[in-house]
Each structure stands twice: as structure tokens, then as C-alpha cells.
Design goal:
Shape: elongated
Helix content: 25-40%
Order of helices and strands: HEHEEHEHEHEHHHEEEEEEHHEEEEEEE
Distance between the termini: 47 Å
Strand content: 15-25%
Mean pLDDT: 97
Number of helices: 10
Number of domains: 2
Radius of gyration: 22 Å
CATH class of the largest domain: Alpha Beta
Number of strands: 19
Structural class: alpha+beta
């Protein structure tokens, strides 16, 4: 984990004596805690890790999580009560003048707890942490490839689970079951199975709507493996597909392939977004691509960085992002096609491989 810690300090806006990453209770857990420590199990509520400029890290863990903590690359400091934790951290941070915090993952309550540990000047370094996390190391890439493999294999099975009259919730449950059967520890986010008009809602929550002929069927799902998650979307048509549905699919697929073709290290994410967006906006579906082309993935399903028309993002080797154009017609339905890619010097490696030709099932 030393290299990860060094990368965070390298990206920091000013010299720091230490960085503290502190968790609150679920769901307010800073995923950067897992990045810095490398722990693959455990929750670590109200635990903290102190990072030092020489690459060392000290993990302050409750006795509850000690077994999980021993798998980390950090020095372990174990406590039984929060008062003991406070004393240990106060002693550790003695003499620190300027301390970095990860403001995007720190609750106000834990910031107040930190006031017991140090009176040092506080500097928000969440952008430095994000920048470090966006460039994946080999261990991270191995986990992401496995998460993508699982999602890709499940993607090939999606048509076979569709049955007339089934509910969206039942379809989502089938996807989750298949992912865990193939090695996922959990879904990487709440699985979206949406039928018919619901497929025009990009972040639909599956409910009791039942599948019928003529429905667009959109699955947005991902597999979690060693804390790293994939993010894939596939769209099908059940029983029959109208001329308009077929056209929507063709346009979205053309846009996605154009986006993928524009990706390489050194490119601007804004330009990649434009390569895909102009395909859709030159069609009869102009204006119906209502989100960015893609986002970083890793420990979080939105792991920092977006390829969007309003954001300059220099693509760098070993970033991993989604490519997911879509068209959404409210009241009718939508089409989205999403894959995960690793940025390379000359292009990208597509990590997800489930078939994406238009399918009526």
C-alpha cells in the first residue's frame, strides 16, 4: 500500500505532515479507507487510518475488526473503546502541524471527533485522493477484471431469465443470484431491471411492474469482487421490437462504438463524450442523451472523473471508466448500452464482453 499512500501525497496541493481518513458508521464509510489500507473484509465503523509522507500507514481498528485489519498493508493499532482510540490517535498525531482530510468522505461528526486527536491546521485533500484512486494499480486491475468477467458472463444469460409476467424485482433478484453464483461477493450497486416505460428512467428502482410483449428490458448491474465493482448495461426487447425501438438501439450502439473508438491516453473526456453525443444529436433522438458518457469505477461505482460535455478530463493510462450512451423517451422506454474500459496508450481495453447486438427475446 506504500505506493498508494505516496501517490496521494504527490497529488496533495501543499506539503502535509499527515493525512487522516476516518469512517463514521454504515453507510457513511469512506471508500478511500479501503484504498489506503488494502483491507478486503471488514466494515471498520469509526476507525481511522493515518498516512505519512514516507508511505507508511497506521490503521487504528476496533478489536471487532482486528482479524480483518491483519490483512492490510498498514501497521495495526487496536483499541477496545473509543476513548482509547482517541488517546492513541492524539499521541500519534502529536507535533503534526498540517493534516489532510478527505472531505468528501468525512462526516461532520467524525470531523468533531478528530478535534480530540489534533489541533493541527486541516486541509481538504479529497481531490488528491480521488486523483490517486483514478489510476488503478495492478492489484486493482486484477479485481476489476474479475468483476467484469462475472458481469459479462451474467450478461450472456440475461435473455434466458426473461419470462412473460415476471416482475422487475424478480428479474433483478435473478441477476443478483447469478452474479454471486459466479463469484461476486455482492452486487456493486442496486440492480436496475426496468421494463417498458420504466426503461426511460436512467436510475429506476425495480418494482412490481410485469413483463409483457413489446417491452424494452433494460438491465443495469454490476458485480463486486474484492471490493471492486463493475458496471454494465444491456437492453433487450421482449417478444417484438417496433421500428422506433430498433432505430433507437442502432443509434445508441453506433454512439457507443464511436465513443470507444475515440478513447486513448491523452484524449480529453469532453471530446470522447462529443464523439458519441454527436451521433445521437444528429439523429431523430437529439437531446434525449441526458447524462454524461461515462464515469470512473473502482471501489465506488462512481469512482471519480467523468467524460462529460462540461468537464475537462485528461484520460490517463490505467484509468477505468464506463462508456454508456443512452436514449430515453419518457412514457415509452429507453435504450442504454454500457461497457467498462481501461485506458491504454493507444486506445482502450474493453473489460466487459457480453454480446450487445440488438436482440428480441
Amino acid at each position: 500500500m506504500k505506493e498508494r499512500v505516496l501517490h496521494i501525497f504527490k497529488n496533495a496541493p501543499e506539503p502535509l505532515d499527515a493525512i487522516v481518513i476516518a469512517n463514521d458508521v454504515e453507510p457513511n464509510i469512506d471508500m478511500s479507507f479501503y484504498y489506503a489500507t488494502g483491507v478486503q473484509s471488514g466494515l471498520f465503523e469509526q476507525c481511522a487510518v493515518v498516512l505519512w509522507p514516507d508511505g507508511r500507514s497506521e490503521l487504528f481498528t476496533s478489536f471487532l475488526e482486528e482479524t480483518s485489519a491483519l490483512t492490510s498493508g498498514s501497521e495495526i493499532r487496536t483499541y477496545r473503546k473509543s476513548a482509547e482510540r482517541d488517546q492513541m490517535l492524539k499521541a500519534t498525531l502529536k507535533g503534526v502541524k498540517r493534516v489532510g482530510i478527505c472531505g468528501s468522505g468525512l462526516t461532520y461528526r467524525m470531523l468533531q471527533e478528530m478535534r480530540k486527536w489534533t489541533a493541527a491546521e486541516v486541509v481538504d485533500v479529497h481531490k488528491a485522493v480521488e486523483a490517486a484512486r483514478m489510476i488503478k494499480d495492478q492489484a486493482e486491475l486484477e479485481s476489476l477484471r474479475e468483476a467484469c468477467r462475472i458481469a459479462s458472463e451474467v450478461g450472456e444469460l440475461l435473455p434466458s431469465i426473461l419470462k412473460k409476467g415476471m416482475t422487475e424485482a424478480e428479474a433483478a433478484a435473478e441477476v443478483n443470484y447469478l452474479m454471486q453464483r459466479k463469484g461476486a461477493s455482492a452486487p456493486s450497486f442496486i440492480t436496475n431491471a426496468s421494463f417498458g416505460p420504466n426503461s426511460a428512467e436512467p436510475h429506476h428502482s425495480p418494482g412490481e411492474d410485469r413483463l409483457k410483449a413489446g417491452d424494452a428490458v433494460l438491465f443495469d448491474y454490476g458485480a463486486l469482487f474484492r471490493r471492486y465493482g463493475s458496471d454494465v448495461t444491456r437492453t433487450f426487447f421482449f417478444g417484438k421490437a417496433s421500428k422506433k425501438q430498433r432505430r433507437m438501439y442502432e443509434v445508441v450502439l453506433e454512439a457507443q462504438l464511436a465513443g470507444i473508438d475515440a478513447i486513448k491516453a491523452g484524449a480529453n473526456g469532453k471530446d470522447v463524450d462529443d464523439a458519441a453525443r454527436k451521433i445521437i444529436d444528429s439523429s431523430e433522438f437529439k437531446g434525449l442523451f441526458i447524462h454524461s458518457l461515462g464515469h470512473g469505477i473502482g471501489l465506488s461505482v462512481h469512482d471519480g472523473g467523468r467524460m462529460a460535455p462540461d468537464l475537462d478530463l485528461e484520460l490517463r493510462e490505467n484509468m477505468v471508466l464506463t462508456v454508456e450512451p443512452g436514449v430515453y423517451v419518457r412514457g415509452e422506454g429507453g435504450v442504454r448500452i454500457e461497457d467498462d474500459v481501461r485506458i491504454t496508450k493507444g486506445g482502450c481495453e474493453v473489460l466487459t464482453s457480453a454480446a450487445k447486438e440488438l436482440r428480441v427475446v
